[in-house]
Amino acid sequence: MSGGDKKAELTALQAALAAEHAAVYGYGVVGGRVDDRRRTEAKAAYDAHRARRDALAREVRDLGGRPVAASAAYALPFTVRGPADAVRLAARLEEGVAGVYADLVRSSTGARRASAAAALREAAVRAVGWSGRSVAFPGLAERAGEGTGTGTGAAGPADTSGAAPSGSASAGR
Questions:
Q1: Low-confidence ranges of the chain (pLDDT < 70)
Q2: What's residue 4's pLDDT?
Q3: Whole-model pTM over 0.85
């Protein structure tokens, strides 16, 4: 792998890690607002994102990078007042994570690409479960309006998951 390819892969890994940090935070909100019949589903998604986050941090270190840290809090894309909003937030989180994994698929090879493709598929399936709708090319539809498709727009990688860093732990609540 050339130096430029390694840098692109590390950048995509860091973006995926940042999105997973935001998803873990977001699912904390989802779990607190979703109704009882969907709470198990929210907990499973929370656990899946924590596991992916931890694996990505190891991969970043394996490539010689320093894993991007989670923000203390994230501004939610809308106020989550009840179960319907929690479900909508979960779908938005998964759609954003899928987009970042599409970037990682493009930037990686071998086992890392296979793992990123599996993560994209899992996020897309969860997004459908939360929203009740699907898109033809999960992870790419989210990029349609961004221009570069890197998932690291001006607001940073956390923006792709629908949650941006905030200085307040009560942001969006």
A1: 1-3, 141-173
A2: 72
A3: no
